[in-house]
Amino acid sequence: MMRVSLRLKLLLYFTIVILLSLSAVGIAFYSISAKQLQKSAKSQMVQIVDNAVHHTNLYLSSYQRSMVALLTDLRVKRYIDLPADREEYENYRYMTDIRDAIVDPVWIRNPEIEALYIIGYSGNALYYYNGGSEPSFKPEDTAKQIRYFKENTDESGRLTIMNYSILGEKTPMMTLIRRIRGLRSTDMKGFVGIEVKAEELSTLWKGIDLGKDSYFFIVDGEGRIQYHNDQTKVGSIVPASLGKQISEAGTEMFRSSSEGMDRVYISRKAEYSGWNLVVSIPYSQLQKPLNTIRSSIIVVAVITFLTALFLASRFGKSITTPIRTLMKGMSQTEKGNWKFIPLPKHRDEITELMIRYNLMVNRLSEMVDTVYRAELRNKEMQAERQKAEFQSLQLQINPHFLYNTLETVVCYAVIQDSDEITEIVGALSYMLHYSVRTNLEEITVANELKHVMYFMVIINHRIGRTFEIDVRVRPELLLRKMVRLTLQPLVENVFQHAFRQGVEDHHTIIIDAGEEGDSFWVSVQDNGCGMALERLEELRAKLSENRLADEEDRGSAGGIGVPNVHRRIQLVFGEDYGVTVESSPEWGTRMIMRMPISGVKELSSPAGQEAVAPILTLPLAGSG
């Protein structure tokens, strides 16, 4: 057979992987170059926007300089201080003087200004209109204008830009207005306003192609849009999150989706007015050159990936095919089918591994067969030993109890001619029949209580009085499973040890049951003489030995009944379960059997009612 070294295969395919890695490194460097291109494009865009914003600031500041002439002129301040009941001639004189001295030079310097007006709080108002006669307003119109400007201008006298126009809404206007002080006091006495067509500001941006869906807008200090390419947005409030970013970003570019699209914003704050000039560009527009680069990279990456995938498939197939054959053989081995693996034609390290596997399977099959037979014999012996222990335990009925019972039956037969003999013999017959049912270890609580009932029939005749057991087991627990012949020995233990001085009127036995987590417990409690601490510790130590009691233990604490019940529960359910004992001389004794909740069948309650837990009392009187 031709031997091909696995090392040679790995070397060949790893060489291909290295070549692919070098290609990937080249693509990574290309990606870095693309990032630098993106950075350069952003820098260029920032420079364009900074330049445009700078010219816009200069453009708007020229209007403010025109307003300064009005704000500082004494004639304007005197006019603002005039009372509302001024003479009409005086109003005309001020209007003519201010127009000749201030307004006409303003028209010359800034012909794009549409209107200029001076309005005092007292109702004095001078209106100048560029290119036509001054508009006339009624006193109520002037009062309305005063109220509007008071509500929407800065109280300290800073410049306010708004889209409100006293000339109406026929042509969109941008209004620059400030409050002015009078000559006689430092309090604000009126307003000085300039109105410019909004389209004049847009001419500054015509030479700059920001691209589709890009626009410019002005936001005042309260977040209100004073100018926008989209006239429908003028006067609206920018989203809170966007307004916060504009105020915190400073001169940095930032991204936001507050307007429903992922956009890039550049904001510049005008020092003289305090409002922000903001340019908004879709992020996808900045990413467009990079998208082209990215698409090219994706195409190259896909082709490279498919090539590498094909080569990796071939490489993997050459390795995994023999390994899969080996795995199939192991799978058959796990099922107990000692199957030999067929060897491939070529020879390499994996072939050598298959040869050694076949040798191992041959030897293991022999060893496992030997161990399996030995283990089978051990399990059969263990099962027989446990069965013997069960049967031995089931047949360990207290002989003294049987002897005394038979003597009682004889006495009744000789002395009395009554039905008591039938009752005793019937109860004894049931108990003997129940005791020798060796084919069933798990039984319901109800069956164990029935066994105790017949036991009490005999006990009542033996003690010569009626003794009733208080059974507090809830109805839904009567079908819980427990170990057979475990409840009656604990009840018998009460009469032998707790009531050893005889049964008194105050003596009671309580049988109860319940659940704790995943455990089910049944308890037998008495108010008899109880156990001293030494005797209780002796019984607990015997229970901890986890073994069956024998005749030698009959005289010890608890006799042989309690330890055998404890061990019997452990043989059925495991050593995590069994009997625990609580006792004190003043209080009495409580024996608790703990078992797992398994094979449960619960009693259902009538519709609309909750399950009740009545106290059941067994009527175990001696005379029926």
From TrEMBL:
EC code(s) of this entry: 2.7.13.3
Ranges annotated as spanning the membrane: 293-312
GO molecular function: kinase activity
UniProt entry keywords in alphabetical sequence: ATP-binding, Cell membrane, Kinase, Membrane, Nucleotide-binding, Phosphoprotein, Transferase, Transmembrane, Transmembrane helix, Two-component regulatory system
Histidine kinase domain residues: 414-599
Pfam families from the UniProt entry: dCache_1, HAMP, HATPase_c, His_kinase
Membrane topology, record value: Multi-pass membrane protein
Enzyme class: transferase
The HAMP domain, residue ranges: 317-369
Compartments where located: Cell membrane
Protein known as: histidine kinase
Gene source species: Paenibacillus cineris
